[in-house]
Amino acid sequence: MDFLRITSLIFICGVLLNFPAKVTAGDIVHDDDLAPKRPGCENDFVLVKVQTWINGEEDAEFVGVGARFGTTIVSKEKNAQQTPLTLSDPRDCCKPPRKKLSGEVVMVDRGHCKFTTKANNAEAAGASAILIVNNQKELYKMVCDPGETDLDIHIPAVMLPQDAGITLNRMLLNGSSVTVQLYSPKRPVVDIAEVFLWLMAVGTILCGSYWSAWSAREAAIEQDKLLKDASEKELPNFGTADSSTVMNINMISAVLFVVVASCFLILLYKLMRFTWFFEILVVLFCIGGVEGLQTCLVALLARWFKRTGELYIKVPIFGAVSYLTLAVSPFCITFAVVWAVYRNSSFGWIGQDLLGIALIITVLQIVRIPNLKVGSVLLGCAFIYDIFWVFASQSLFHESVMIVVARGDKSGEDGIPMLLKIPRLFDPWGGYSIIGFGDILLPGLLVAFSLRYDWLAKKNLRAGYFLWAMIAYGLGLLITYVALNLMDGHGQPALLYIVPFTLGTFLMLGRKRGDLKILWTKGEPERVCPHVCLESIEESNREG
Question: PA domain: from which residue to which, for each copy (predicted)?
Fold first, then answer.
């Protein structure tokens, strides 16, 4: 199945490593340096839930955004009052309403005057709150104009998207009794989804590292057996162990990663709003997921059905394929197709995570870092790449390119498929906690390298490097979650925290133990060739 493997590797190098740090499904608190705070106009831009009742029966819930001015929205649903909703007359509320209000929430159209003018007129007429309907589907941040002084507003102001306004307007014109409840619940400090996501990331690296180290040790043992065979007239030319199924990263590819990944990220940013392009991403993810899931299942089943795993059949284009591969392929393809069809359902995240984990584990087994020098260059470039596209890109594109792409903001979909995600079960706003493949795969390559070195050097868990690299990764990812919560849910570049922890720990331990030179250049311990040992023994016996 070399064709599928090569396809998935190209896909991984070009796509999977482009995605960011841990990012929540949607920030409920926003800040904006272009709209500075000042007295009377200093509220945070918070998302607001607008629950509706039609003729006494609970109906749709809409989401709006609070204004810089006015009173703040209550955070608890039990403290929010159900208040009748009415239309403004005139509709834009640029002039005082023709009739007095008695505590109703007034809904007005955007346009023709300042937001603060609308709010002041609504408050003077006796409204308890004002809903301003945008003239577009998106939400808009309501700010105060420079030099405004009439900011003593004591009612909350919320903007609704155009489709929500059309729905409510239709209900009111039909003569229905509409009441609304406005509140802005806070996210929990820690959601159980973040705990499970942390366990998934750490567990994926753990499985991938052990598989990679096991394969390397098996290849080394097989090589030793062949070298010990004194009856061989001509020894085979050995390069990298198991080189037919392993791809070592070199210095050039490590440096080019930043350039290629950046170009592909910009391509995604510009084209992901097109349905056809997003569908191409889904197809590519399915191809990689099928290859990953198939490889993992075949490796597991081969342990139980050894004889079947050694039987091969020639298949056109694909060459020699094992019977186990033929047996599991239909299941893997069906699984990926079913996920693609139902990916936007409430359970779609389960299939996405299974395909993603299998793919990452497979890549960690196939793609390898040959030494610490290449690993340092790769992670160093990824460190700069992640920080630039999460933070610095805002100055060029007026938004974080990495976060926009990861969340699929311009695609109309619930995020791109190249992420691990878990629904936020105890979050009143719902959504998902997510982590990019690159934040698992790139550090995972270094962690897998550490375990391969430990096993070849015959180091125990405490004296080796794997345990400490694994702990460093877990701590780095944990710090990412802490930073995420301290930043009110704003997306964070996970490699900003993971790379210093993981790579720094490795470098310091290597220097302290005196292994840094070998780790940096060769990447594997010195090994005495078995046939040399045999020759020495035979020579000693002759002399004796």
Answer: 84-167
